[in-house]
Each structure stands twice: as structure tokens, then as C-alpha cells.
Amino acid sequence: xxxxxxxxxxxxxxxxxxxxxxxxxxxxxxxxxxxxxxxxxxxxxxxxxxxxxxxxxxxxxxxxxxxxxxxxxxxxxxxxxxxxxxxxxxxxxxxxxxxxxxxxxxxxxxxxxxxxxxxxxxxxxxxxxxxxxxxxxxxxxxxxxxxxxxxxxxxxxxxxxxxxxxxxxxxxxxxxxxxxxxxxxxxxxxxxxxx
Amino acid sequence: xxxxxxxxxxxxxxxxxxxxxxxxxxxxxxxxxxxxxxxxxxxxxxxxxxxxxxxxxxxxxxxxxxxxxxxxxxxxxxxxxxxxxxxxxxxxxxxxxxxxxxxxxxxxxxxxxxxxxxxxxxxxxxxxxxxxxxxxxxxxxxxxxxxxxxxxxxxxxxxxxxxxxxxxxxxxxxxxxxxxxxxxxxxxxxxxxxxxxxxxxxxxxxxxxxxxxxxxxxxxxxxxxxxxxxxxxxxxxxxxxxxxxxxxxxxxxxxxxxxxxxxxxxxxxxxxxxxxxxxxxxxxxxxxxxxxxxxxxxxxxxxxxxxxxxxxxxxxxxxxxxxxxxxxxxxxxxxxxxxxxxxxxxxxxxxxxxxxxxxxxxxxxxxxxxxxxxxxxxxxxxxxxxxxxxxxxxxxxxxxxxxxxxxxxxxxxxxxxxxxxxxxxxxxxxxxxxxxxxxxxxxxxxxxxxxxxxxxxxxxxxx
Lengths: 195, 463
What we know:
The structure holds two protein chains of two kinds. Chain A is α/β, with parallel strands linked by helices. Chain A is built from eight helices and seven strands. In chain A, strand 3, helix 4 (99-108) and strand 4 form a beta-alpha-beta unit. Chain B contains 16 helices and 19 strands.
């Protein structure tokens, strides 16, 4: 995973709530067995509408998505995170996120940033009024800055540290292999085995 | 101080706790299917890692499988199935492939085999893993990075969730099912209401549900935003489990049951949030919009978006009505459908098929209506055939299909065409979920079957 420290770039205002992972990447694209190449399918159905914000050339190269509440609800498909990253997004800002999406994002290095609804609306206004406005998502300072907006955000210390360092979660857990082995020795005997 | 059921299960699985870090939680059962696992196995190979506990891991083929006889026509679907077979062979994981007597939807076969038991932690790269919470297990969906993590370590680093009680007071009125209950709950608390929580479903109406009904309720916890939902185990749970292939046997059974009986929320425990539902106010429930929280009693009308106080709810309702091609004030009973789908991990179990068959017995499917009955597993199909349910479906003019996820998410050939409308017993009415441009109304198996008869959204009592 690549470290995440500070990202500055254009922002795409997505004024929709309940953007479920079926919209982010429809199921027909989940048949691929690679982790890459999902960017073309990002918001596949909505992109067939020429007026959809992602088809607005002025937002080309954007690295921040600013969405409505309950972004990433529904299916656990991590392909949604991969599609956003493959398209070029490094961070998603929303008032609320689906739990599984938020977890997947931090595992894969896409930063989910929770901000107050009023701040999210202000950022969407800014990006609509001037698509070239730059939004900075600063994980070091835990702050989002754009135009006259400077808003702090919460993130668990451990998650922040892992993202800043770009650390492999599995590698961190394997340091505790002895604890896992010792836990396994005490598991009740009636628990089922598949083999 | 007392603990909730979810806290008891959590505490019993903490491998390591450290200040300022997530708990490292042990996973008792890891279920795998073809869609969310290939990249995880690739990750293991790249890092030179092995599967720590293949004996706590089981795989099946469900999302892509055809529900008609014959091989998979789509070469990309076939390649994904072949990747699963290759990965399971390479890493020594038990697989129930197409054609196997135990093949089926991952959340149907776990309980069916007796692998899902009270007090366990169960994960799967699938958000409907919450289904297994019906047994008093802490069960939740994970992404592919976490699938890889569990394969490599049999653990997950997790933040301790908050706890929510959904207290269902009173008994469900006649004709109101588990599906109506959970759809009603989601309408009340919203698609984000459960975010950050594990829900415990409690109260008389929940205790009165069969295990199948409890699975339906827990299944859709994620549609209320909660990663997991559970029900305390009781005699109904133990009766369901006893004698199943992987249930404890002999003296182990007695010991297990004694332990399971302690898996209840203590009287002096507190939940972080309590939501109360009045069961007596529920009736057959349907969705009118494009998220599962956009629901209403079937006896009601399509709402006016202007009636929503919250701006984002109002905008979402406006968008939903455009997508669904519905006008405010339309009686929900007047909505005509093209397709009826009975199946999925929400409602593809034997009780669901019995309910649908009871409604369809001696009746005919409406003209020009496509009705798919898709059992959740091969075993469910065999049970249904042993009971003659398939003959009722076929005599009515419905399609009796093979087991799989099917039209719940349209990864196989079973899809809605653009503009088509369904009454579906599945779990998601998202835009395009059942096929690009398709429109979905979520319903119970009873409403689905009655709708099949009239061609319009209908409850059995209306027939």
C-alpha cells in the first residue's frame, strides 16, 4: 500500500446520498479476477448520462470526491474502492460512510474523510463554482482545506499511522503469531472444522 | 456490569488487545465464494503466504452460477469459477462446486451444514454474512483485503463496535412475516441508522420467529447500515442445529448447549442505542424507491418527495421516483410488474418456498409474467422436491430453477431488461441491481407469490 500523507487536487462534487457500491461499480464488472482496470467501470451506469458530473471535462484529473451522506452503502465489494483509486481518486469526503466501504478504503489506501454535512455542501459549492479549485486533504494535520474552508476530521490514531506509513496490515498481524497460536490452543473442542 | 450478547462473543475472541490499537479478533469460520476471493489468493501468492487454517475455511460457487441446466455460457464468469477451483485446490480448501450436493448460496449452506453455531465469529467477503447472526454468532461481511488477512492469519484487527438493541414489542399480526418486519425496521431507522453498530434483535416477535425467519431479519442488517445483527440463541436454535453434519455430537452437544445458553444479554447490560418497533403496526411491506429504507405498507401509496423533512431524503426520493417511473399518490397495489423473483440469501430457504407454494397452490401465474423460483441451495431444492413444492410452482406456470444467487444481483444470466419491473424477495432495490435499468420492489415470499397471481403488487389476503 502506498503511504497517504497530504493530497491536493481538484474535487468532484457528487450531490447524491446513498451512493451504494452497486452504483460505484455494478456487479457485471465484478467477474474480473485482477485488482486493476476497474476505473473505466466506475459509476458505469451514471456515466452513460452526458450530464453526469464525471463526464464534465473540467474535473479531469481530480483526486478528491465530495459526496452526500451514506456513501458506499450496500455490498462489501472492495472493487468499489479499487475503481475509485484506479480512476484517480485518493480521498472521498462525505458526511457518513457505509461501514464496510470505509474499512475497505483504509485497507487499500483510499482515505475516507467524514465531515459535517454543512462543510461537505460548502466544498461541493466551491467545486461547482470553480472546478479548478484545489482541495487539500491533509492526514498529517487531520484537516481538509479549500478556499475559505479549513475543517478538521477525526480518524483513529492507529488507522492514521498505518496509512501515513503505508503499512501492510497482514505483516503487522503476523508479528503476533504467537498470541494467535496460544489463543488457538484454548478454543473449545466442539467448535466445527470444515476439514 | 453486565454485557450484551455481542460483547460476550467479542470478548471471547480477542486474541490481543492493546491501548490505542484495534482488537485482534479470532475468526471461527471463513466462508468463501468466487467473486471476492481471487485477488486475496493472488495476494497470498505474491507474498509467499499460506492459508493458516484451511480447516476453518469453506468455499462454494454461488454468485455466477447459472440456474438452468448446463455449463456457464459467459467466459468471464467461467474464468472466475475456475480461479476459485484452482485456488481451493492449491491452498487445500474444501469447495462445494456446481453439481455438488452441498452447493448453494454461501449463507444458506453454512447453517444447513451446521457450521454456523452460537457464539462463533463468522466472516465472508459478502455483506450478507450478517445472516449467520440468527444463531447468536457475530457474523459480518468483509472486503477482499480482509479476506486475504483472514486467510493468512485467521484473525482481523477490528474496532470494537457499538451495540444497538432493536426491541420489537408485541406480536406480528397474522400475515406479517420476517421480511415485512425487517423492511419495516429499515424504513424506520434508515439505511444509515445502524452504521457503527451491531444490532441485537429482541422481543416477543423475534423470539416467535423460526430460524429461517431470524436469518431473513439478520440478513438485512447491512441494509440498515449495521455490519452485523444477531439474535440470542434459544431452544429453536438448538433444535435447528441438532443432528446437522457439523453440529457437536454426543457429550460435546450437551457441553455446547450449556455454553450456548449463557449467550444472552445480561439484564443489567446497557446498549449504546435502543430502538423500539411496535410489531402490531406492521403489515405486508414493500419498497417503492432505490434504497431499502424507501419502503411503505403495501396498503399505502407512493409518497410525495415533498413530504420528507430532510433535504437529502427529499432529493433521494425525487431521484428514486424518476428512476422507478412512479408518481406520488399511486396506490402501491396498482403497480404492475414484469417479473417475480423468489430466492436469494434473504428468502431462498425451505420455509420461504413453502410459503410461496402455499399461495400458488391451485392458482395460475398472471399472463406475460416471468416468475423465477430459485432455491438457495441444492439441499433446499431437494427438500422442496421431496415435498412436491416444485410441482405446485410448475403447475402454476412458474420457473423452477437450480440453486444460486441468481437475479438478486444479476451476475448470471438471470437479469431484468432495461425498464422492467420486479417484485423480488431479495435484499437490494438499488438502481440496476437486478440488471441495468431494471426496477426492483423488495417484498416477502408471500407477497411475491400473490403478486405472481395478479401481476400487480399484492398480498395473499387480497387474493
